Amino acid sequence: MLFERIESEGLAHYSYIIGDGTEAAVIDPRRDVEVYLKKAREQEMDIKYVLETHRNEDYVVGSREIKNRTECEIWHADRQLEYEYGKPVEEGVEFEIGDLSIEAIHTPGHTPGSMSYLLKEYSGENWALFSGDALFAGDVGRVDLLGMDKAEENAEALYDSIFNKILKLGDEVLLFPAHGPGSVCAESIANRKWTTIGIEKKRNPKLRYDTKKEFVNEIKEKLERPPYFRKMEELNLKPPLLGDIPWPNPMSPAEFQKQAQDNWVLDTRTELSYGAAHTPHSISIWKDGVPSFVGWFLDYQKPISLVTESPQELEKVTKYLIRLGYDEIEGYLSGGMVKWHMSGKNSHSIEMLTVQDLCEKIDKEKELDILDVRGKEEIKENGRIEGAEEIHLTKIKQNISKIKELDDIHIFCGSGLRSMIAASILRNKGIKNLKVVLGGLSGWKSNKCHIK
């Protein structure tokens, strides 16, 4: 038997492959599908079905990619949408995988056509539920994606899906959602990789409300929506075929400089490396932050040129970008910043200081402008810097005029990684009086400026 969860770093996306005998099924695959094909080959299984729980908003789905390489059937949810591939699944349909069966259960709320898939063991007993974005560990799916005018209606549907269908399947049933902690498809998914319906009944705060009205009022709020979601919704009606993961073209400093005039320049090195020296007009997003942040700041109108630490990092970053539909990766700076400087090209830098240096500066000199780019929940949990201007990282571009009014900007996030993203964006908007603070509140020792 084959039963594995495939985790996609950064996206907090979970997909699954289940097999028995010589047959397998994949649920919610990502775009680079070799991992599913390889696992099926190793177990001498054919992928018979690809099952989608809903039209995903945060990554390009790999269903057509698997179909292009196998004889599988694709079954998708949200039947009211105009898919250009696969077949719409109906509630109650069962898919046979060897001696196992998988039953489709309509669980609307996150989207109107969302489906969950119930895996039944050999005896026919309920075994595991693949709940998509309906129910997570510690949370439930967001209901605002169709607009706030539909949020209450969707929240009511999600209540019925969870309380009248999912929770009645049995406390012992394993629960396998489509996302883990860090996903933007819910507010606060718990760091609990293994869970059951019974565990969620006891530990999920969103399931503790006594009435449907209380549940609806709690979850119908509007959450942040990354701008790239619109592109994902468009692509996932007919995901473009990928084939092998492309390898970006190496570019000399002269070629890179020429292309950079019309491209996004994405620098995925560490905040220390970027701050010390970077190519003009580049945006800093460290390697492991690419899946979480690139969709907020890079649109799909221009190709991307990359600056990375190494070929190994280049391969990983390319996969991250491809999963988000950034197919136009023009190339990368061959030899990195060393070659850039050896060719006599100009570079920029951003001043950095430690949090201890910042505290000393505040105490010895004067009150400084501190720009705190952490999120509200993070600030609430870890403490507020007295007098700081609080603008979440994802809101930086909308607040450029406000930030320009600050005199000597010290950007704080808790480590320096997100601060450097903010600094690179502000630098490209012509703001030069920037300093990135390295470190978090654990090093805060100012006598004048306190943590609340």
Automatic annotation (TrEMBL):
Pfam families, per the entry: Lactamase_B, Rhodanese
Cited InterPro entries: Metallo-B-lactamas (IPR001279), Mito_Persulfide_Diox (IPR051682), POD-like_MBL-fold (IPR044528), Rhodanese-like_dom (IPR001763), Rhodanese-like_dom_sf (IPR036873), RibonucZ/Hydroxyglut_hydro (IPR036866)
One function term, GO molecular function aspect: hydrolase activity
Domain Rhodanese: start-end pairs: 259-349, 364-448
UniProt keyword annotation of Flavoprotein present: no
Domain of life: Archaea
Any one GO biological process: glutathione metabolic process
Record keyword Metal-binding present: yes
Keywords: Hydrolase, Metal-binding
Name the UniProt record assigns to this protein: Rhodanese Homology Domain fused to beta-lactamase superfamily hydrolase
